[in-house]
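Here is one chain, start to finish.
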Amino acid sequence: MDPSNPLVSNIKSSDSSLRALLHPLVLLTISDYITRHTLRRQTQPIVGALLGQQNGREVSLEHAYEIKLIPGEAGTTEWIIDHSWFQERLQQYKDVHKDPALDLVGWWTTCPERGPGPEMLALQRVIMDKYNEAALLLAFHTSSVAGGGNVAGKLPLTIYESAFESGSGDQGKDMQVDGEERLDLKFRELSYEVVTGEAEMISVDFVARGGGNATAVDGTVKKSGKAQASQTPLGEKSDVNGKGKGKAVEKEAALAAETSGLTPEDEELIASLTTRANATRMLQSRISLLKSYLERLPPSYLTTTSPLSSEPNNPTPSQDHSEVSHPILRSLLALTARLPLLTPADHDSFVKESQAEKSDVSLVALLGSLGRSIQDAKGLGTKFGVVEGAKLGGRKGARAGRGFDDYEVRADMVGGTFSR
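Its structure:
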């Protein structure tokens, strides 16, 4: 939150304010829409709707979809919502998601880290007036994703609620209360929590496995048929609809096969290893983050062993020390207390048992390999016997054919006669 942004409230949300429950499916939808918008080189703003349900002070953000925008008045750069299209699409989503019943709880867009701008305030007013008076705003920070600044930190997004606060009254449509000062509409940052359902776990796992199968292909080598047709010199005919198209498709298929060169088993193994590597990398980053937090605590929390300390309960964080959070410290203490439960009490017997099981597995694998070798040797012996038997049979037939001629030659040599 940038304090220099006049549209962002400086008042922090209290414990009694709203709390957002963010589902991963919303993040997948936003990421997909931003990717398609970037690849298509579209110029209109990226805006979408958020569907969920509100239970007391908790607002769940479960589904998201894009909003169709149309140009505003001529001569302006303003974009407005196509309300007929938006109402029809919203009703379709309500008809599909009836159990539990979902409704419009807010909208999302992309904005810099400093906070929303005046154009977002205008859309917020329209959505509050026509659809939901307590609509939330999910601001996705694409600049931080491109720069890679939030790899080990929080998600590159901020969730805001709208609040009327006393201000200068320069925003146009402000609220006027009888006999009181003018109130301006501002955005107040909310805390959120990421929650996941069973169906979302399956979809997220599928997306992660698909990302492991992705292969980088040089765009200068593989081109579509449309790109090839556009590069055909003038005066030459481009047979895109005839045999040329079939040859181009075959050439692309052959090139794709040469580029991948992986069997389905290899792709599955790569996806599994990539998922494990990403999980290990994420675990390492989280451990490093917790380690750096503990190292930046005040010295009294690192050296004092007595529960009674001269430090106050909530010391003011200085420039060199981080803010003390007792819930985080209690969670870390509980985590470290559970670690001995994951290791066996008798480590030596556990090592011996593990080595015995490893030896049994290796012995079974060796016996299987030996059995396959014996079977291959038996098959080789059978084939060798067949070949040698055929050779011996051919030699005996040749000798039987030459026996009569040899006998006649020997009789002539000794002066004998031969008769039948």
